[in-house]
Structure formats: structure tokens, C-alpha cells
Amino acid sequence: MADLNTSDLKQLVLHDLHASLGGKMVPFAGYFMPVQYPAGVMTEHLHTRAAAGLFDVSHMGQVILRPKGDMATLVAAFEALMPVDVASLAEGRQRYGLFTNEQGGILDDLMFANRGDHLFVVVNAACKEADVAHMTAHLSSVATVEHITDRALLALQGPGAETALAAWVPGVAEMRFMDVRVFDTAFGPMWVSRSGYTGEDGFEISVPDGGAADLARTLLATNGVMPIGLGARDSLRLEAGLCLYGHDIDTMTSPVEAGLTWAIQKSRRTGGDRAGGFPGAERILHELNHGPERRRVGLLPQTRAPMREGTQLFDPDGTPLGEVTSGGFGPSVSAPVAMGYVAASHATPGTTLEGEVRGKRMPVIVTPLPFHPTTYKR
Amino acid sequence: MKFTKEHEWMRVEGDLVVVGITEHAATQLGDVVFVELPETETMVAEGDEVCVIESVKAASDILAPLDGEIVEVNTKLVDKPALVNEDPTGEAWFFKMKIDDLSALDDYMDEDEYADFIG
Predict the structure, then answer these.
(1) Given CB atoms, is A23 within the 8 Å cutoff of chain B?
(2) Phi and psi for A174 in degrees, rounded to 5?
(3) Contact at CB, A305 and B30, closer than 8 angstroms
(4) A34 in reach of chain B (CB within 8 A)
(5) Domain count, chain A
(6) Are A165 and A41 within one domain?
(7) What is the pTM of this model?
(8) Residue A4 above 60 pLDDT?
(9) Are residues A45 and A175 in the same domain?
């Protein structure tokens, strides 16, 4: 990172707020982002699970797809980009999706919401320009693709999130996991979804740039709400078993290998109403029917030494099996945790493998995900 | 107390040199979650990687600041790595070395020089 030209980095609309809170700013996906605040990663992580954490995720891409004709035509075209059922998504609901390529690899993972007369899509920061180009190339005959660049995105996560946000936007208390609602608020029109990236109950809130600082300060002034940096965001999502694009999933991993089959509804599978018809369908349907050659698994190192990304994994007999794609220390688990890909023959929970840390092979056990139980409000 | 550019401190205790990491280093590392210590009765050369420290963020090494023999290690750190953040220059020493010539320490920064070094 040292040779990165920091003059090309963009500042978040809340940059000054992060600085005033003592945020340690680092380059991430083209932005200066707070990696931690003075409380530190461990405290921030545990606080989010115990009370509530406020995350600035404004670097992520927000896109509106507005049909040029009818919604059904847009929905069908959007479905053709993903192995996911878009048509059955009710108004006011959000779903997890994946853009795939012709080889069945993952171009990006995303959230999309049905907002009645249009779709709202949130994509990863590092992929957003490519995603907008991808959607424009494939959807512009049936929809306008509007990259929203004048709204911040905040995530409020943890058991205290509902109370903190409902004090200002009472309607959010009635929302369930993956509901989306629009509220007129003192901070401007707020686009709220009950979702997140921590395994906790919580909200993601799109708010006009002009109201973002006020909203963030207001929430931070609420009892129990602490600012949380990228460091704890990463350890929280890892404990929740959630994939980080570019690490746990990428163009070389298929959704089936990644264990994201729950995101591929019946309608798009072999025998479904709208089976196939998405990029990479041949491989993805084959893997659904016959099993993939390798699988993403949870990994619990059996010593205190964390197994980080890139740690090579072996059968105890010495056969190479794969590698760790995300790993570190899990503050809530109070032990090292990791995820990685291993040969399907060794992906059964309870299997003991070995990971090579600084030249030494250490035992690690394949473990069901998540490491920490999720608390979504279903 | 003497300091290295790698943010280690050294304190003479009898004929031994006690080694740890500075408060500045501990703060930069963040919460320490794992410490791997060297074996005692090991001969090391200046610059050898002798300890591993893993924080929530990353792994880093402690280098031997001097040639000599590791004679004692602080096993308390294995059970309670967080001591490194709580008391880096006190309870959280890493190892004690026996060296031939204590004057080798003269080459290192004193407290004021180290304070200037970290700015």
C-alpha cells in the first residue's frame, strides 16, 4: 500500500466526522476509510454485538434501475444476469444476488430491492464501476441505469440498532429482516433496509449527502451507539460466515463452491420455471446437481495462532487441499477463525486438516458457518 | 532504557538484557491476540526473528536487538497476549538475553532520541 498514490483517493462525505472521532484513515477501494477509532478493533467488534455500531459504508455503489417500459421486462433482463429469482421478490423486499460470468465465476455480490416502480441495487465499492458498466451494457435497452453519487450509506448494526434508529424514524421498528422502506425524515428522504454485514440485526440507511453528517452525529449521540471501522466490520462478517468479495469469492469461484446455493432459488435450478438462462448456467447447474470439486468451509484453528488469508491447507497425510481466503481473530468467539476452500472430499464439518503457519503445520477443524449465531429479526 | 528503530525497548537487569515492544508499537499493532516466544537456551544473532506477535490486524515479528542467548521468556504473554497492550514496557516483557558485552547497547537510542524518532 505504501506506493499507492494517495492523491487519487476520494474522501467520504463524512471524512471530517471520522477525523474528529479519531478515526485512523487508510486507503480502501479508492477511498480514505476509517479502519478503526480510538476504542480499537476488539472493543468496536464486541460493542456492536452487545449494543450498536455505526458504520460508514458510503464507498459502496448505489444504483437505481428504472424501467423504460414495464417492470416485468426489467425484472426478466435483470434475472438474466444472475442465478437468482428476481420475479418473485415482493415490493418492499430485498434479496441477495450475484452477477456471474460465462465461466460461472462471480463478478460481484450485491443486494437488490423491489421498490415498486424500480429496483435499487447496492454493490461492492471495488466493483461498482464495472457493475454499472455491466448493467448498462445489458439493461440499457429496458432500463435507465442511474449510479447514485449524492447519497451516503450508513449501517447501524447490533441489538441496540432498532431502538436507536426508531427514536428518529419510528417506522423502522415494524420492519423485518430484508424489508426495505422509504421514510421522509429531518435528514432527508431515507432509504432503509433491515439488513447488514455483521450477523446482527440492524439497518442499512441511504441518506442524502446533505443530511448524512447530521444523521451520523444524531445516532452517535444516542446511548449505546459507537462508531465502528473497517477492521471490526471485517471480523464481524467473518464470524457471521459472510463472504468478502475479492477474497472469499471472485471470478474464479462459483456460487456453488462458495456455498451460496441458498441464494439460488428453485425457479432458476434444473426443473424450475425459469431454470438456467444466466451467465455460467451450465457449470452452476452442473455443480448444483453433482456437487462442486471444492467447497468454502469454516475453519477453526486448534492453536491460538490465527490462520490468515493465503494460509495453505493440507490433509494430515500431506496432500494439498486448498487455502484460507479470510482469517483472523474472532473477538466474540475469542479464538482464531477462518474460511477457505478445500477439496469437497475434505469439506465435512469435523474433518481435521492442517494449515501451514510460518512453516509449521498446525491442526485446524472444518466447522459449520457461522461461527457466531446470527440474530436477524425474521 | 534503550530503543531500536524496530520499536523494541531494552533494559539492563543485572547481567541480562530484558526486551519488549514500546507503547508506540503496541498502539500501532492494535489488540494483540497471539504471541509466539522463542525457546530458551537459544543462541540468536542481531536481526533474527525471535518472536511473533499477532494483533487483530496483522502478524509482525520481534527481531533480536543484539547477539546473545535467550535465557528466559515471559510465558504469561502466551496465556494473556492483551498484556502487550495493557503494560508494554512493564509486565509485558518478551524475553531476557545474555550478551557478551553490555556496551553494545550504547549504539541504540535513549528515551529522548526515541521520542524524536517516532515524532
Answers:
(1) no
(2) -85, -10
(3) no
(4) no
(5) 2
(6) yes
(7) 0.94
(8) no
(9) yes
- A106 found inside a domain: no
Q: Which three cell numbers stand for residue A210?
A: 446533505
Residues in contact with A104: Cβ distance below 8 Å, sequence separation at least 6, in sequence order: A254, A255, A279, A280, A281, A282, A283, A284, A287
Residue ranges making up the domain that contains B39: 2-101
Supply the CATH number for residue B69's domain: 2.40.50.100
Which residue segment(s) compose the domain that A227 sits in? Answer: 6-57+150-239
Q: Is residue B114 part of a domain?
A: no
ipTM above 0.90, yes or no: no
Q: Where residue A184 sits, what CATH number does that domain have?
A: 3.30.1360.120
For testing contact with chain A, the best of B33, B51, B84 (most A CBs within 10 A): B33
Residues of A in contact with B30 (CB under 8 A): 36, 40-42, 231
Domain limit, last residue, from A170, A205, A239: A239
| Antiparallel, parallel or unpaired: β A320-330 and A312-314 | antiparallel
Question: What are the pLDDT digits (tens) for A252-269?
Answer: 999 999 999 999 999 999
Q: How confident is the model at residue B58 (pLDDT cuts 50, 70, 90)?
A: confident
Instruction: Considering only residues B59 and A247, tell me which one the structure prediction assigns the higher pLDDT.
Output: A247
CA A317 to CA B69: how far, in whole Å? Answer: 36
**Are residue A154 and residue A43 in the same domain, yes or no?**
yes
Q: How many domains does chain B have?
A: 1
The pLDDT score that the predictor gives to residue A8 is 82
| B115 found inside a domain | no
What HEC string does chain B produce? CEECCCCEEEEEECCEEEEEECHHHHHHHCCEEEEECCCCCEEECCCCEEEEEEECCCEEEEECCCCEEEEEECCHHHHCCCHHHHCCCCCCCCEEEECCCHHHHHHCECHHHHHHHHC
